[in-house]
């Protein structure tokens, strides 16, 4: 899953112990490698990193996600199908945000600004390359932009230009939107099961002592 999903699955300020630490860890995990990288952070932030890894592992193994990536590979995305799936699922999540957010009184723009403010205040804890990326995410409001097809197109176009040998990503939005009902069905099956897995594994519980 991509940035919006990871942030949304970090719990809530009202019910999650060490909520801000969980958010920071879940976001930072994109650039944290191995056990040594994990142990460089305080225990509460480590829980967020482990949560991120749980989300990625569950996502990669889920049958609905595998259907999505297989369809995208057949559409010409090849080894980049998983990248397109991650970003495009964030598009569906953002587009229908009130349906998936546990707090229906907080719209996507408000959620996005709350996340930007939290991460900006603790930006010094993020790996350096992620700090640079976060600057552009906040400046261009990526999280809200995901809600629109043009935002999906821009996100994948940007990746196609920044990642070596990934020019095909520029075609990812068109491939996804061409068979949108099939991908919507995949996501509708997948998301509730992912949220259940996150809640069941206890990464958002207090005094969590789960290991890698």
Order of helices and strands: HHHHHHHHHHHHH
Cα(first) to Cα(last) distance is: 19 Å
Strand content: under 5%
What integer is the average pLDDT?
A: 92
Helix residue percentage: 55-70%
Could you walk me through the main structural features you see in this protein, from its secondary elements to its overall organization?
The protein has 212 residues and is mostly helical. Helices cover 70% and strands 0% of the residues. It is globular and about 45 Å long. This is DUF479 domain-containing protein. Keywords: Hydrolase, Lipid biosynthesis, Lipid metabolism.
Short note summarizing the structure:
The chain is an all-alpha fold and 212 residues long. 70% of the residues lie in helices and 0% in strands.
Could you list some keywords that capture this structure?
212 residues, mainly alpha, globular, disordered C terminus, lipid biosynthesis
List the helices and strands and how they pair.
Layout: H1 3-8, H2 19-28, H3 34-39, H4 43-61, H5 63-77, H6 81-95, H7 97-100, H8 108-121, H9 128-140, H10 142-145, H11 149-162, H12 172-178, H13 180-200
Helix pairs in contact: 2-4, 4-13, 5-6, 5-13, 6-11, 11-12
